[in-house]
Amino acid sequence: MKSYIKSYFLLCFAMLFFASCQDEAIQINNPNEQQTIAANSALSNLMLRTSANAVSEDNVIDNSDCFSVELPVTVIVGNITIIIENEEGLEELEELLEEFEGEIPEFVFPITVISSDYTEQVIENQEQLENILENCIEDPDVIECVDFVYPISFSVLNSDFVIIDTVTIESNEALHDFLEDLDDDQVNLVALNFPVTLVYADGETITVNSNEELSNAIEAVGDDCDDDDYENCDVDEVKASLKECVWKFDDNLNDFDGLIATFNDDFTLEINGGDLAEPVTGNWTVIETDNGTYLVITELSAFQDDLGGEWLITDCDEDEIEIVRGDLEIELERYCENDLDCDAEDLTDELVECYWFAGSSVIGDLDNKFVFTEDGNVKVYTSGEFVEIGTWNVGVDSDTLTLVLNLTGDYEVLSGVWEVTECDEGFFGLVMGDVVLHLEQECFDDENPFDCYPEEGVELEKCDDNGDGFAVFNIYEAVPACNNETPVIISFHTSLEGAQNDSDYLEGATAYTNITNPQTVYVKVALFSNPDENLIYTVKLIVEDCSEPNPFDCFDSFDAVIELCDEGNDGYETFNLTLAYANCTPFADSVSYHTSLADAEANASPIANPESFINTSAPQTIYVRVEVGDDFEVFELSLKLEDCTSGSCTEGDVDGILMACKWKVVELNGDDNLITYRLDFNDGQELIITNTENDETVTGTWSTSTNNDGGVDVLFDGISAPDIQSIVGNWTVVECTAEQLIFHRDSDQMTLDRVCE
User: Fold this and answer.
1) What residue stretch is flagged as signal peptide (predicted)?
2) How far apart are CA 372 and CA 528, in angstroms?
C-alpha cells in the first residue's frame, strides 16, 4: 500500500551483460577513435533515443506519451473486466472501446508505469495516476520508428585498443542501461561489433557496417518519426490509384464532405456532388520532395483558395488516401462501379442475419443498431427494446444492386434507393446521391440463442399470507438475464396453445395473481429476426403455507462448498463436513453424509466420522441426507482443493482489488447470513461496514501482509457490531480474482464478492 519508484542502474555491465570472456587479448586491426562509442557522443545519444521505451505504443490504455503501463494489467470497460497481457490484448481493447463509445478504461490498481528511460513507478490508486498525468512532461527525443535487431554485441577495449571483454545485448532496455552507464572518465572503451541490422516501422530492414552508417540510418528516419510517421507513398502508385474509379471527400472541418472527385488519365480533375450547381474542373498531379509526397491541385474553376495547392499525403492505401494542408485534413475514399463481390441474394441473406450498426453523416446522434427481419421490416434498438421504423427490400436496376429503405420518423432521412458500392464479409457500403451509408454486422457468438433459458421449466413460490391460496407473482423472475447477443422477444401466456399461436396473453406479468393453486403459465422466447424460431417453457406458480417454516429450505438456500488448501500438493486433505450446513442442521432430526447418491437415498453406508473426512478425489461431491419427521431430502456438498502455494495474487494485488469497489460477504462457512453487509476498504487502513437492511455503519481497520509461505494475509480488527464481528481475525487469501476473494482462517472459509455501485 505504498508508492515507490524503482530505477535500474547498471552497477557492473561485465557482470550483467557479458556473453563470453576471451582468455587471450585480441588486437583490433588498425584501431582508431572512430570505431569506439563515447559517453554523450552524437551516436551514443542517437542509440539512447532509439532504445528508449516506446511510451506511445500503448496510448489506447493510458493516453499518455510520458509512460507506458507494465503488462499484464487489468482494466474495466463498461461492466467488462479484461486482462491485457500483450500487444494482441491492446488491439482487443481498442476494438472493445469502439463498441463502448465514450468509455475510458479504468485500471485495477496497483499498476506500474514505465517512463522512456525505463524508470518504474508503482501507482496505487486513481488519484496518484491523475497526479502523474497532470505533471507529465513528454520526452521529445524518443525515436520509435526504428529498432535494433537483437542480439547485438560490444567489444570492451583497454586504452591500447585491445579487446578485454565482449558484451551481448538482448533488448532495448538492456541497450539503454548499457549506454547510460558509459562514463566520460572510464578507462576502458567500447566499440559496437558490426554488421548490425535495423528494422523500420514499415517492416523494412537495413544492415550497417560502421558507426557512420549507423548514425546516418537512424538520422534518416528521426524527423519522420517526430512528424506523425508519414508514409513514404510512391508517386507512381498514388497516381495509378487516383485514376481508378472516383474519390469521395471527408474532411475534419466538414466543409467539403460529400464532394466526389474524378482524377482523369490526362491529369484533369472534375469535382461533383454536395451543393454544387455545376462541376468544378481543374488539373492535378503527384510530386515527391524531400519533405514527402504531395498531391498538387491547380487551376480549379472554384475552391482554388480552399482546395488548390500542394497537399502532403500522410497515408496512402489502394482505396483510401489522407492529405493534409495546414489545419485542414481530408480523407479521400475510393468508390468503384461494377466490382461488387455480392449479388441480390447475398445481400438479402446477409441482412437478415444478426444485427447491423449503421454509420452515416445524416444519422447524427440517433440510435444506430438495426435488425432487418425476413418479412421485410426494419427495427432499431432504442430505450432497451427493438422498435419497428419501416420496411426494406433489395433490387437490381440496370445491373446496379440497390437497397430500398422506407423508414419513418427521425429515420426518414435514410429513406430512398441506396446503391451498393462495396460488400465484404459483415460489411456493406452504400451511396445515395452525395450521402454515404455504412452497415457493419455484429453477430452473436452463441450457437444456440436459447441455451440460456430453462427449457425444463421454472417454479415460482410465494407465501399464502391471507390463507386464501392466492399470491402476486412477478413472472419476469422466471426469465434469466441472458448475456447472449441475439435479439429476442419475450411473451407470457396462460396456455400452451396460446404460446404456440400467439394468443391467450398473460396480462400484468410483473404483478400477476394466480387463478388456481398451483397454476402453470408459459414463457415464449422468439428470435426477433425470425419469430418462427422459438422456445416455450413452463412456469409453475405455487402458493405455500409459510406459517410454519420448511426446515429443508435452509439446506436448499445456497450451494454448499468447502474449499481447503492442498498443503502437501498430493490431492488429499481432511475436511470437517459438518461445517457446510452448520446453521441448518439444528432444524433437522437427522443428518448423515454419504459418498454416493444411491447410498444417501437408501440411507446406507454413512461416513463414520464426518468431522474428519479425507477426500478420495478432487473435486469430490458428498451427498447429505437430511431427515425431518417422515420426510427426507438429499443435498450436495462440493469438496475442493486449492493450490495455495502458487501466489496468484501479491499483497499489492490484494490491496488494489479490495480498494477498487465495495465487497459483500456471500458466505461464511456456507452461510449467507452476512450477505447484507457491504465492506468498504479505504486508505489509511480504514474499513467502513454498512448493513444495507438498516443503513447502520460501523468502522474497523484492515491491513494486509505477506506470510511466511509467500501468501497474503488480511487482518480485520476493531469491529464491534453483532454478527459481522465474526470476521475479526487474520485470514489467508486462497483464491484471488478481480471479482472474488476466498479466505481461510484455520477451518473457517469466507468468500467476498465485489459490488461496484
Assistant:
1) 1-25
2) 9
69, 58 Cβ separation under 8 angstroms = yes
- Check residue 25 and give its pLDDT: 35
Judge whether residue 27 has pLDDT over 50.
Answer: no
Q: What is the pLDDT of residues 159-189, one digit of tens each?
A: 777 788 889 999 999 998 888 888 655 556 8
164: nearest Cα among 188, 142, 143:
188
Place of cell 446496379: 400
Phi–psi pair at 247, nearest 5 degrees? -130, 130
Average pLDDT (29-34) is 46
- Ordered structural domains, the chain, with CATH: 5-50+144-225 (no CATH), 53-134 (no CATH), 235-335 (2.40.128.370), 344-442 (2.40.128), 458-544 (2.60.40), 551-642 (2.60.40), 651-755 (2.40.128.280)
pLDDT in tens, 652-692: 889 888 988 899 999 988 888 899 999 999 988 999 999 98
pTM of the model: 0.34
Determine the pLDDT at residue 722.
Answer: 83
Tell me the C-alpha distance between 352 and 378, whole Å. Answer: 10
CB 660 within 8 A of CB 754: yes
Q: Which of 81, 78, 79, 57 is nearest to 69 (CA)?
A: 57
- The C-alpha atoms of residue 194 and residue 449 are separated, in whole angstroms, by 61
Q: Helices 42-51 & 172-180, crossing angle to 10 degrees?
A: 150
